[in-house]
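Tokens for Major facilitator superfamily MFS_1. Go.
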Amino acid sequence: MPTRPKLRAVRTLPPPVRLFLLSQLAFNVGFYLVVPFLAAHLSSGLGLAGWVVGIVLGVRTFSQQGLFLVGGALTDRFGVRPVLLTGCLVRIAGFCTLAATTSLPGVLAGTVLTGFAAALFSPAVETGLAHEGRRLEDGGGITRAELFALDDVVGKVGSLVGPVLGAVLLAVEFRTTCLVAAGIFGLVLVLNARWAPRDHGTVRETSVSAGWSAVLRNRRFLLFAALYSTLLLAYNQMYLALPVELERATGSQDALGLMFVLAAVVTVTAQVPLARWARRRGAATALPLGFAVSALAFGLVAAATFAPAPGWVPALAPAAAFVVVLHLGSALAGPVARDLVPPLAGERYVGAHYGALASGGGLAVLLGSTAVGALLEPGAGLPWLLLTALLLASAAGLALASRRPARPLTG
């Protein structure tokens, strides 16, 4: 029986894995210190219109997820360590830019830099975990899917600390928050510059373009990436649509930090057990179910906009239900999907395939966030219904593709 991945088991993992997990923790603390409060800064602090805020958030996500293909291919070519360190440097530059500017071009430049930094950092860490996870699984340790679940838990601990610290820093200028975040990424840079292994066993592929060509020829993977992209669009609504729902329910966004704390608590408590259950049931069951559960999260808020709850129901109930159910769906689908990427890639150009998976999601977020941002206003149910339908369509597509007699998607 494989060892069950619990937080206390982190200290028993190999040093490269522990460093990756610690880096993920610190990286998420810095990220969630700023990004959940970016929309409020853009709208309230800088006075930007809702559709402009949607574009800025979409650009941030696209510059992150959309450029993962570049970061993944660079990881395949040069290795995990140099790409990870470069990502830290770029993220520091991005937050310093956000701290120094109040103009829209400056904000766009800062958001692009912060996004591209993650496009370098995250595929590098993900590729390292994929290779180390295979070693652990082959050696009778935890499975790769369980390691990814543990990575999600560690990341969510960071997302729990980040919003709390960000909420504390709301009393000071936004630029101060950005500078604190830049300092955290400086710590990640120092740790990895000092202790990250120069070669921990990942394959150095011969060229960057070869990885891109392999991805484009892999039709099964491209179908999977297209269907999976809607989950990233759905999760991005934590930053765009959730604040609007809070405005509808309470007249302010003061509870936003609390919602991110709730999201972190759900993930920390439920991620590993749900990932273990999903691993036993298989991707053909877990993936469609995870998408269907995520669709339910949007359906609940849509119902609240069309039929307001009676007075005895707390005003934050729809938003809280959205956060809980969305993260349960993500917990079911996320680790299984990440575990599926290396087999779909044939265990070659793994970084490029992880990058392409995120890039497809980034494109979906860029297009979807612009459309949703134009439709969103307190009390509007249409954007929530559209996202519900989109997730249900992806769930159906994954179920059908997974059950094809010839080369099933998840087989």
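The CA atoms of residues 85 and 193 lie 7 Å apart.
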